Fold these 2 entries.
Entry 1:
Amino acid sequence: MTGLNRRRRLAAVAVIALAAVTGSACSSSTDGPADGGAYLVWDPYPQFADDSEWVALLKKCGTSAGVTVERTGYDTTDLTNKALLAAQQGNSPDVLIVDNPVISTLAEAGALTTTDDNKLDVSAMEKNLLGAGQSDGKTYGVPIGANTLALYYNKDLLTAAGVDPATVTDWTSLTAALTKVKAKGKKGITFSAIGTEEGSFQFLPWFWGSGAQLTSLDSPQAVSALTLWTDWLKQGHAPNSVINNTQTTSWQEFATGDYAFAENGTWQLANAEKLPFAYGTIPVPASAGGPAPAPTGGEFVSIPVQKNTGRYQTSQQLVACLTSADNLLTTDTTLSYVAPVAAVQERQATADPKLKVWVEAVRAAKGRTGDNLGTKYPKISESLWTAVQAALSGGKSPQEALRAAQTAASTR
């Protein structure tokens, strides 16, 4: 890509960023990477203070590379905007850690180097997780870890209803379990179907678990997935509140002890240990059985384009250090992530048997921007969550809602 074309792409993409941040908000970006021994790292973990294990690891990796690491943590959305603007201005950080769907946006803008360019070794990474950072056959970073979705269950409610969670392996057996729970006067399942990316995120395991593809939102398989959810509401297996539920409020409903199941993620594991009842987890089942592909969350570590290409070698050392097996184990334990490397996943599951279900779910997971969707995904996702909202509210049938979604996704 020529410098002129790259600047044009960045200028086009940065229009979105400019709408979200002001000039004064970019003050930290305009300083650029320091010369000499200082290397800038930007991450989406503002919750970690300077005395945290995460920052200690960054500094340790800097020391190993013979440089000083200057780290700044941003909110996820703010980080995306700042990364785009910094790339446009030619003063990107040396190492950038971003939410995996953002990789395709930055790559399309010409803001990231590829692993062929920067010589990062990704051979040990699980291919399904690596896919979220790939576009047009090129890889733009290294996954630092992944989270995904599964079904939490209330052991006491299932026991009282005569349901063995091990028998819940497909949609038919799950609906049968919900029916038994309802017959005992309790509630079946709660999830998030809000009209945002969270709603799409939670619907995707059912969508993909039906065999549907994001390039055909109105396929018979897709209709079957949305019909499953609408039927659950009609039959009283799921509450009407799911239409407005975030993943947090959905979890709060489950925590009352009134629901047998809740679809939620690895990030709730710490909260799960505080529940006033015994819980377990199973994978979200596919329509015909087995774990459904759930979407992956988690970040990629990437190396942005630099004017001084001589910095790439040290940046590569920093990324290699952050994503080494031992460091991944520490970092992913801190973040409640499943590691992107099979050997480390096994170590996690051995250390904490409760993670076995999550390792299985991550191994079956898919990147939302995978299948070479890249920056098309946000448009598709918006059409999808709009369809889910329309069907669950009774405004349209599942088939009508998804037909409208496919038309919208094709024209956006």
Entry 2:
Amino acid sequence: MASIGVPDVLTRARTVAPPGWSRWLVPPAALSIHLAIGQAYAWSVFKPPLESSLGLSGTQSALPFQLAIVMLGLSAAFGGTLVERNGPRWAMCVSALCFSSGFLISALGAATRQYWLIVLGYGLVGGIGLGIGYISPVSTLIKWFPDRPGLATGIAIMGFGGGALIASPWSTELLSSFGAGSSGIAQTFLVMGLVYAVFMTFGVLLIRVPADDWRPAGWNPSAEARRPLVTTGQVSARNALRTPQFWCVWVVLCMNVTAGIGILEKAAPMITDFFADTSTPVTATAAAGFVGLLSLGNMLGRLGWSATSDLVGRKNMYRLYLGAGALLYLLIALLGDESKPLFIVAAAVILSFYGGGFSTVPAYLKDLFGTYQVGAIHGRLLTAWSTAGVLGPLIVNAIADHEKSAGRTGPDLYSTSFIIMMVLLVIGFVANELVRPVDPRHHDGPSAETKAATEPTSEGAVR
């Protein structure tokens, strides 16, 4: 029977995979959503034309992106339980409708020169699509890949980081064809909204969930439970919020995201400003290429680092993200304007840590709290992303605007921001060190070992 208010074709019951169905079809379904919503990371391409055509400051032009990230976290937090209840197909459909509609509303706003419509469309409506779409496949992937959760979530979430790799040059080309004025921006938003609607529908149709008695062949949950920080119990989303582990991981994610998103949101103007007074200034085309390169680092980090976490553990990976990230920020602050390759490589590695942090955290939560309501727990944790989505761009843009009004140029626009990012990463490093196994008194779901012992192994298990 369909859930209340949910069409029968979108319910979880209608998406259960038949025997023999390959679990490797799930990552492409997830990628179709994440590659689309990952366009958010290419927002900096729209900042210069919006500022010039509508007379906006750098802080004002960041508002749609900031609101989108805020709504991502809030919709993920409040919608996490609905995603678990109604299933991934329903969630992906809602995401496609909201994300595409956000572009169409923004197109109307640009065409009529009403900036508040762009903020409403891209930020509010599109942001809801971001949040629901982001968490829609995570719980499903972990259930299909309990033996390799870091790899599985990394493959899907890699798409979110790589979305700008497609969207950045595509947006640049569309703006070049239609023009960088308000009319050209409107046409660009319109085309992107329609194309993304079609592309995301692929994931809606393809997604499947495993049968309740399905397990991958050869997987031994008892051996998995012997790994550091891995719990044999199951913790509900409600109880997870009562644990210090949840809030330590919340701080870890918030600090890591703040440090990365500050660069990402202002990537194109930042590299232009950094080398404006040198003998090798950066053109608009090259700046867009830099955005694409950062997206590549973000994307590869989401897959490579999260897959590595299956081998070395989640806590060790965050030690790398936060500790090495702080050192790289120091390197850029001291020597970034002396070498363009050094600046680009350091920024790309920081963004790989940023992306890796996102794709590793679902597996971190699975280790700490089990799979019982990991999707809902993940949704609530993404409020850290909402906070960081405001903090990162606000720190970088506000300080850059202040320094520019004081007559400063080049790296001086960003030196203070980089120091703040280093401090935040150190705070995250300390929070990660405080993570310990969850106390059994918080376990309120079915035991993983008990469930595994009582469930038959599916003869149609897929490797």
